[in-house]
Structure formats: C-alpha cells, structure tokens
Automatic annotation (TrEMBL):
<keyword id="KW-1133">Transmembrane helix</keyword>
<feature type="transmembrane region" description="Helical">
    <location>
        <begin position="503"/>
        <end position="525"/>
    </location>
</feature>
<keyword id="KW-0131">Cell cycle</keyword>
<dbReference type="InterPro" id="IPR041489">
    <property type="entry name" value="PDZ_6"/>
</dbReference>
<keyword id="KW-0862">Zinc</keyword>
<dbReference type="GO" id="GO:0016020">
    <property type="term" value="C:membrane"/>
</dbReference>
<feature type="domain" description="PDZ">
    <location>
        <begin position="205"/>
        <end position="283"/>
    </location>
</feature>
<dbReference type="InterPro" id="IPR036034">
    <property type="entry name" value="PDZ_sf"/>
</dbReference>
<dbReference type="GO" id="GO:0004222">
    <property type="term" value="F:metalloendopeptidase activity"/>
</dbReference>
<keyword id="KW-0378">Hydrolase</keyword>
<dbReference type="GO" id="GO:0006508">
    <property type="term" value="P:proteolysis"/>
</dbReference>
<dbReference type="InterPro" id="IPR001478">
    <property type="entry name" value="PDZ"/>
</dbReference>
<feature type="transmembrane region" description="Helical">
    <location>
        <begin position="103"/>
        <end position="124"/>
    </location>
</feature>
<keyword id="KW-0482">Metalloprotease</keyword>
<feature type="transmembrane region" description="Helical">
    <location>
        <begin position="6"/>
        <end position="29"/>
    </location>
</feature>
<dbReference type="Pfam" id="PF17820">
    <property type="entry name" value="PDZ_6"/>
</dbReference>
<feature type="domain" description="PDZ">
    <location>
        <begin position="287"/>
        <end position="365"/>
    </location>
</feature>
Length: 537
C-alpha cells in the first residue's frame, strides 16, 4: 500500500512539474516574441482550477487529467483566429516571422533539457550514491575476460574519465553496446598493478528489451561486495550461529576473506560441516561456528525446498521469489509456463534456464489450481551464499561527485548522452534491434517514480531529470502534433519561402495523431501486460 501511495503521488508530482516546465518554455519565449498567450494549462480535460490574469489576460488552468498540458496562443489555431483584430494583430502567433515561431516551438523541449541539466548539476555537486567499481569475478570467455580483467581489479578510468561508481561504468557500457563502439578502460589490480583494457563492441549485436542481460552481466563483470553483513535471514544457519547485521567476516576456516564472494567456495565445499567464522564486531574479533546447509540451486534461485522425490513444497524461504509470489508449504507444482512438472528435476531444469525471467507457475492447493508469477533470481555467488547460510552483503557505497563548475559540464554531457541514446533506441525499435516493450506508459512510469521516491529525494530528482529529457526527445520526433512535427513544417516554410498549405498540414496532423495514438496504445498495452504479470493475473 505504501508503494502505491508513493507511486501515485510520485507520478502526479513528476508530471505536474515536468509539464509545467515544458509549457513554461513555450509560454516564456512566446511572451518574449510578443505573442499573446490565451491559456496556460497543466493537464487536459475539465478544469479543476483556473485564474485569469488581470495584467495580460492569460487564463491559467489546472485540469483534471494530469497526462500533459498546453499553451494556447492567439492566431496559433483556427479557433483563435476570429479573436484577431487590428488592435492585437501584432500579437498573433501566425503573424510572427518563421524564426520566432521556430523559437517558440523549440522552447518546450529546450526547457526539459535545461531542467535535466540543472537537476544533474545539483546531484553531481551533492554526489550520486553508487557502488565502488571493484570486480568480484569475471566470467570466462567474456568481453571482460578477453579484455584482461581479473577478479579483484578496481576500474579507475573509462574513456579518460575517472570511474567513480558501477552505475557510471554500467551506463557507459550500455551506450557503447547500443552504438556499437569500443571503450578504453584502466584498472588497478589488488597488488597495485596498473592495466589498460579495451572493450570492443563494434561488431556486437545487443538486443535491448525486458529480459535482456544487464550491460555488466553481458560484458562478464560481477560486482564486488564487502564481507559485511546487511541482513540475517530468520531461522537460517547464520542466525543460529550468532551472526548479526554489521558483522564483517574476516576469515573462514583460517582462510582470509576480502569480499563477500570469497565466502562462496568455502561455504559450498563445507556444506553440512562446521565452519569456523572469524568476524569483526564493534572493533572486537569474535569466532563463531556455522554449518552451511546442503541444497540444490532451486532453493537459492526461488526459495523453496521440496519433499523428498516430490513436487510438493515443504519449505518456502521468506523474502525469496516463491514467497513473494504467494507460494505456500503444501503447494504442489504442476506446470511452469505451460510445461507439465512430474519430478522436482523438471523444476530445476526450467528454473536454472530462466533465471531472471518471469515464469507462470501453476500449483495445486487444496484441490484448486492457482497461477503464480515469479522471477527466479539470477544464479550468482551472492544468491548461493544467501541460500547456504542466510545472509546478504552490505554494499560498499561511494558517491559520484564533482566540483561546482565540473558538475555543470558533466550534467550537460549526461543530458546530451542520454538524449542521443534515447533517439538511437527509438531507431533500433524501428529496425527491431530493440524491443517495443521498452515503451512505457503511465503505470510503469508511476512505479519507477514511486520506487525512486522511496529511495530518497536524490533518486527522485534523478528520475525527474531522466523523464524530463525523455519528454524533450519525444517532443522533438518529426511527427505532426508534436513540437518536432511543427518544427518540420516551419523548416519547410523556411526552405520554400511560403507556409505549408492547410490541406497538407491537415493530412500531416491526421497521420501524426494516428501515430501518437498507436504509440500510446502500445505504451498502455505494455503497462497492461506488466500489471497482469505483477499481480499474478
């Protein structure tokens, strides 16, 4: 319920802020160009509040549907042209030069980009939280492995810029994958050796869409986490041994531990046996004894344990995917994604193959068949340790921050980079190199805004910046109805020396409206499918 409240409020506030900024861009430049603004509306539909200025006669409106907004100018639309007379003709939009009309058109998207730059600037001054870019493991025969990365390396530079967080590295790798570029990196090994690396994606085909492997996973990197305990699962081996949140594991069976992932091979090798654990707690060294449980991968991936030689569930691990999906002890798994389940090995095979992919699991409960949606966790060392002893790692956090002047440049570059990347993703959707499922509607945007708001004001501002630049990009698409379409007509007028005829505009507007409705339909369809999966319907 709390997340729902955050999502609804986060979405409404985000749309109100960003639409106001976009329309204010049109409004401000129109006024500077001497155009009379008749109405400034945030939202569509029936007005719930309005006020007419006594100074300039502009009507300011807050409307019922918070999915957009508009600025109505004298002489812009046919229904305003009958208001033109000799006294106000010089204030009419259609009487202004093409250059001034182009400036008014571009002012809305420009305002969105300026807001994004300002937001990133502020965030980079304060510092954006992230995880230090230290490599925990490198997959064999991966891009990272071929580039010479080893476990324990700390990435220090990427394309000549200091690498401060994994988020920074992740975005740069994503950009290179989409643009099919190579990137230069530098690292420092655990023995302080400086190394240079090249990740060459020039011939790489990376399909961007739901279910795609993340850029870091695709490249072969595993993120290093410190051996500090952030969570202890109730009833698991760690709690029974006396481990507590905040403990730092120093040794296992006299073997030194420097990262959370160092524990995995030792715990796995000694599953079912007693392991000596030396920890640091409040500056004091303490030795505990822990017995990792024996388990198969399925327990770590979805959090269930079967009855012997059965598909009936005897244990559901709290907080794991099966528990989150609503699975109960005693449920019998009968189908997964329509495939019949006869033995527990069938579950293992499907779950292991579909880690990170949402599955429809049909269970028999008290004679009734129920459908549950769950996403198996990706099989990582962190997952396996959680299943073995019941702990998760704290993140070795840092902040990506810059001086005031540098932060402004970084904010501007970030806005440019993300905007051009968004244009390229649209292009790849047309060529089917990216999934159309990337198009999100209001429900998924609200979910993202809500999650960001829950994490804190800094993350909410970050999401506002991303949504703002996305609105700017979308409005620049050369589709009649959008700002980009109007600008296209104005460029044609500039080239030919005469305005585009009303009949051509009408056809263009009809086509543009059709395209926008199709895009909106796709966004709502994607949201609908997402909601069905989210709520197990």
């Amino acid at each position: 319920m709390l997340h729902l409240i955050y999502s609804v409020l986060g979405f409404i506030i985000a749309i109100a802020i960003l639409v106001t900024i976009h329309e204010f861009g049109h409004f401000w430049v129109a006024r500077r160009c001497g155009v009379k603004v008749l109405r400034f509306s945030v939202g569509f539909g029936k007005p719930i509040w309005k006020h007419t200025s006594k100074v300039d006669g502009t009507e300011y409106v807050l409307a019922l549907i918070p999915l957009g907004g508009y600025v109505s100018m004298l002489g812009e639309a046919d229904n305003t042209k009958d208001q033109i007379n000799e006294d106000n003709r010089d204030q009419a939009y259609n009487e202004k030069s093409v250059y001034r009309r182009m400036a008014i058109t571009l002012a809305g998207p420009a305002a969105n980009f300026i807001f994004a730059i300002a937001a990133f600037w502020l965030l980079y001054i304060v510092g954006i939280p992230g995880i230090q870019p230290k490599v925990a493991a490198v997959l064999p025969d991966s891009y990272a492995s071929k580039a010479g990365f080893k476990a324990g390396d700390s990435i220090t530079e990427i394309d000549g810029e200091k690498a401060q967080t994994w988020n920074m590295v992740r975005f740069r790798i994503l950009t290179a994958l989409v643009r099919q570029e190579s990137i230069q990196l530098k690292s420092e090994s655990s023995n302080n050796t400086q190394k240079k690396h090249v990740l060459d994606f020039r011939k790489t085909k990376y399909f961007l869409g739901p279910g795609s492997r993340s850029p870091l996973y695709f490249t072969g990197f595993r993120v290093a986490l410190p051996p500090t305990i952030a969570f202890v699962a109730p009833g698991m081996a760690a709690e029974k041994a006396g481990l507590q949140m905040g403990d730092t594991v120093v040794r296992l069976n006299d073997q030194p531990i420097t990262t959370f992932h160092d524990m995995w091979p030792i715990l796995y090798k000694n599953a079912g046996s007693v392991v000596d654990v030396k920890i640091r707690r409040n500056g004091k060294m303490i030795t505990l004894k822990i017995t990792p449980i024996k388990q198969d991968k399925v327990i770590g991936l979805i959090g269930v344990r079967p009855k012997k030689n059965s598909t009936v569930i005897s244990e559901v691990v709290s907080g794991d995917p099966a528990h989150e999906a609503g699975m109960l002890v005693g449920d019998k798994i009968v189908k997964i994604n329509g495939l019949e389940i006869n033995v527990f090995r069938d579950i293992q095979r499907i779950v292991n193959k579909n880690a990170g992919v949402r599955l429809l699991v049909e269970v028999n409960r008290h004679g009734k068949t129920l459908g549950l949606n769950m996403t198996p966790k990706k099989y990582t060392q962190k997952t396996y340790i959680g299943g073995l002893i019941g702990v998760s790692a704290a993140q070795d956090t840092t902040k990506e921050s810059y001086s005031i002047l540098t932060a402004l440049g970084v904010g501007a570059w970030k806005t440019w980079d993300m905007s051009t990347l968004t244009f390229q993703v649209f292009g790849k959707m047309i060529t089917r190199e990216a999934s159309v499922k990337n198009v999100s509607g209001p429900f998924r945007i609200a979910d993202v805004a809500g999650r960001a708001a829950e994490r804190g004001l800094d993350w909410y501002i970050y999401i506002l910046a991303v949504i703002s630049l996305s609105l700017g990009v979308i409005n620049l698409l050369p589709i009649p109805v959008l700002d980009g379409g109007h600008f296209m007509f104005q460029v044609a007028e500039l080239v030919t020396g005469r305005p585009v005829s009303d009949s051509v505009k009408a056809v263009g507007m009809a086509i543009g409206l059709g395209l926008i409705l199709m895009l909106m339909g796709l966004a709502f369809y994607n949201d609908f499918v997402w909601l069905l999966a989210k709520f197990g319907m």
